[in-house]
Structure to design on (348 residues):
């Protein structure tokens, strides 16, 4: 398995990063109506990035608005105690109006409009200038005024730290430090995933110095499981099947499972991490049945480029962690297809 060596993390083309950061600052200065959004089913990095950038824009005298396709998962609601984040479906008419009239739209922690789900079309049609800040591999959607990207970065929150650092580290107050630390901690799997380097720890050390509480954050995010989620997890574990000599593990969560255990999609958080902790497993898939779609998480170890596999299903992500959303279909029939396609992919 390839890991990044200590000190290996660095910004791709620092000169370009600095130039694009200045362009972003100028566009912010010129704009009054600014919208922030992120991908479907937002994780800690997506939410931490949004809330950190929101606070930064407030410092600049702006009045930004955060609109997300998906509700905030329960274990991250404590980050948004003032309920700043708007849920798109709660008031589609008003949110569409805000998107249409925006001067500037930031898309954080994804580079694909399609990953904002039903917000993609309003974003695409908006005359606002669009800016992408992300750490995932690129897509074919290049309709951005500016892209601030570093695919070697462990999290989008890490990129924002560098962006703030270019201006003045004092921008990072206690709230921003908390949001960024939450983003980095969760997207590195609590500092266990590739791209976790000495740079990651030095950034987080500075965030702790500036007010982030690592013990409290970990406890809030990971140690508040409800009994129904534990039951759902137990059902998921029994669904796991093994293929190709135990090198591939596949688990399924159905709509009936959600109904039986009074749960929803946010309670599936962490299932893909668990499946990769099983001895001998080199790749793991989690298939989640939703009312109108299937949500698939793909994970791998070493040189297995699972993003390339996810691309077969119009998905995306990182080399060892990717996902895809597909039209609704029988999850067990899709599982058969997935295993068949992976067999061909693995041989290549």
């Amino acid at each position: 398995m390839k890991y990044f060596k200590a000190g290996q993390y660095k910004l791709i083309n620092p000169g370009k990063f600095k130039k694009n950061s200045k362009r972003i600052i100028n566009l912010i200065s010129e704009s009054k109506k600014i919208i922030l959004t992120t991908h479907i089913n937002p994780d800690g990095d997506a939410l931490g990035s949004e809330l950190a950038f929101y606070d930064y824009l407030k410092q600049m005298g702006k009045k930004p608005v955060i609109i997300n396709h998906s509700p905030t998962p329960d274990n991250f609601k404590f980050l948004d105690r003032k309920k700043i984040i708007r849920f798109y479906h709660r008031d589609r008419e008003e949110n569409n109006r805000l998107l249409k009239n925006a001067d500037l739209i930031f898309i954080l922690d994804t580079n694909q409009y399609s990953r904002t789900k039903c917000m993609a079309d309003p974003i695409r049609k908006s005359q606002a200038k669009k800016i992408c800040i992300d750490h995932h591999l690129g897509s074919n959607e290049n309709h951005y005024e500016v892209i601030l990207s570093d695919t070697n970065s462990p999290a989008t929150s890490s990129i924002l730290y560098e962006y703030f650092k270019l201006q003045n580290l004092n921008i990072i107050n206690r709230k921003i430090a908390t949001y960024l630390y939450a983003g980095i901690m969760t997207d590195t799997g609590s500092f266990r995933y590739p791209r976790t380097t000495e740079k990651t720890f030095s950034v987080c050390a500075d965030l702790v110095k500036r007010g982030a509480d690592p013990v409290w954050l970990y406890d809030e995010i990971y140690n508040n499981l409800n009994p129904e989620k534990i039951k759902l997890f137990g059902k998921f574990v029994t669904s796991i099947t093994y293929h190709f000599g135990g090198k591939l593990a596949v688990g399924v969560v159905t709509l009936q499972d959600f109904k039986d255990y009074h749960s929803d999609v946010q309670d599936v958080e962490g299932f893909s991490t668990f499946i990769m902790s099983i001895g001998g497993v080199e790749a793991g898939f989690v298939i989640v049945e939703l009312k109108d779609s299937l949500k698939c998480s793909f994970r791998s170890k070493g040189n297995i480029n699972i993003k390339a596999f996810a691309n077969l299903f119009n998905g995306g992500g990182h080399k060892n962690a990717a996902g895809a959303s597909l039209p609704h279909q029988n999850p067990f029939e899709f599982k058969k297809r997935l295993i068949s396609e992976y067999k061909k992919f693995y041989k290549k």
